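Lecture 7 notes: from sequence to structure.
We start with the chain below.
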Amino acid sequence: MMNGHAHQAPGPDAPVRGGVAASLGRFATRTLDVLLPPQCLRCGAMVDAPGVLCAPCWERIVFLGPPECESCGLPFEYDAGEGALCGACTRQRPPYRRARAAMVYDDASRRLVLAFKHGDRTDTAPAFGRWLVRAGGDLIADADVVAPVPLHWTRLFARRYNQAALLGHAVGRLAGIPVVPDVLVRHRRTPSQGRLSPSARHRNLRGAFAVAPSRAAAIKGRRVLLIDDVLTTGATAAACTRTLLRAGARAVDVLTLARVVRPAV
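Predicted structure tokens for the same chain:
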């Protein structure tokens, strides 16, 4: 006599039912594509598949990759060799170990980022997650946990979502890494960083972040992958990194959707 529930072998019509379900699913997808054709993430032109850019928009976006500064990910015009650093990182390394971004933040990419950040285009997060995974493969391979940069609760209430958390969840799902969306808390609402100098940005963020005591164990002794939408001067990433390291994180890498690249002077 067997304990528990015996598993019944599938009946003779099981493959047929499965085939019918699959066919219905394909039919529903094709019907939806006819009624609502996939659109380019940036300009809205019709494309072959959802979550992609049309050819003209793809050519306008500047995607990032080697050669780049080993530390901050600033793109180089030529290969300076393994472990090469940009001038800023040679003078002073940031507190995070490495930073990488999927694309340059410029006139072409700004529409994508701002629509995602302020225009309720949360449907673009899965595609952006794929771009992040491609750009940050080395960082993801070393990561134990994903943590997004938090919003102050008043901004979260007004916006209704944290764009960094959406990116973090997309990366976590694709890479199979646990995501701790609430490990960092922004307990002080800081003025906009937009028009501040680099030094003023750092002063503006001093003491703005904390690790939630109930979540501290999630990052203690672990390598954290910090996710944000745009890296500008690195002030926000540096402030979050210092907070995580003080709370016991082993190391912090930074992965952003876009980054500002200023011309060399």
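Points to note: The two ends are 82 Å apart (CA to CA). Residues 14-35 form the longest helix (22 residues).
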